[in-house]
Amino acid sequence: MHIAEGFLPPLHAVGWTVAAAPFVVHGARAVVKEVREHPENTLLLGAAGAFTFVLSAIKLPSVTGSSSHPTGTGAGAVLFRPPVMALLGTVVLLFQALLLAHGGLTTLGANAVAFAVVGPWAGYAAFRLTHGVGGGLLPGVFVALVVADLATYLTTSVQLALAFPDAGSGTAGALAKFLGVFAVTQIPLAIGEGLLGVLLFRVLTVNARPELERLGLLRPVAAPAEGGAR
Amino acid sequence: MTGLAVDDAAWASAWRRRSPGDKLLLCLGLVVCALVLPAWPGSVLVAAVAVALALGPARVPARTFGRAVRLPLAFVAVGALTAVVSVDGGLGWAPDAATSAGALVGHALAGGAAVLLLATTTPMADLLPALRRLRVPAAVVEVASVTYRLLFVLLESLSTIREAQAARMGHSTWRRSWRSTGLLAAAVLTRSWDRARRMQEGLAGRGLETGLRVLPEVLPSSRPFLACSALGLAGIVSASLAVA
Question: Going by CATH, does the domain composed of A10-214 fall within 3.30.70.260?
Fold first, then answer.
């Protein structure tokens, strides 16, 4: 649910751009530091951005509504951490605006706050919390992706409610309106993305275990001791 | 053909050889006009100019431009209708509902057309180096450039794997379809890692030490183009303020 170009009033567009800036700059600094210390990781970071873009192009089966594509930022937050996703998510939003006509340039800041900042941080916090209370990787991933999606949808609804308060009931009434209207597509989408995340990580734990261990998502399996009794 | 219609149009556009900076100034000027000028006649003028320039001198295919403009319409329509419905004491229309909804749709369509004029005439490969001049760190531009180049490879993988899954009845039932979609996402992720690793090994073998430096393509700025852009934008602003 990207806010389309020109939809937000000028002051709101500027305000959300200013709000997104510190997070995107923080993400950019993290990326610059990573690339300076390990130039070879430029390609891995680029691959992470491309994966997030392509993940948002996968159509989820049997989810009603026209916007039945994952946001991809929840999975990105679990895999690559929220600060990096603040930058990669913003780059992906820019590409979506210029290559797919999803979102826009004046609404890039507002969309970045929802998709690249609030969604990934909320999803990652839910992932750590689930891990902390003893949930395994897959329950953590499911909760993270559902929470990231719901947080994104909630943030976008708040942005729209602030821009277009209801004539009688103000911002609170407008928030109820936008949450209600977009719930039809966004709640099934959140659950769908959670399920997709579980299926994705289940395959990865088998086919890409070394990568998940390197990213700190799985503990390395202890190597069998050498020189045992014959 | 890259697989994304807007990107294909940008590479084939008659404005492809124009300076990205010139096109950025014109299109951002139109975007700002669409945002701040009154919907009548500002948005109408911006939309008319953007469409005329795209389909006329820039020679963007009308079908590509039309399809891309229609994409955000569902959000714009639902959003505009929701904004002008009042929920205070039962459902009803807010005061000046039709005017407000029309203005919202007008701003969004005009702004969308202006962004599309940029997108369908300027490939991302030309725009990314321009970010360096806006003092975006080189490392960030490099990561964005790799993302841009890799996403077409991954989109092609996505399409091939999905076709193979469909041919093997991978989407014949709801359950199989979910399983196939999970496998598809995992395959795309592992391929992206594999591609990145292979590219990194190849570049390391060629002495990658200070980033991915390539010779930038020099597309000179055109004074007549800039002058026409400034005149056009001034005309839109004057006409809008005179009528409003």
Answer: no
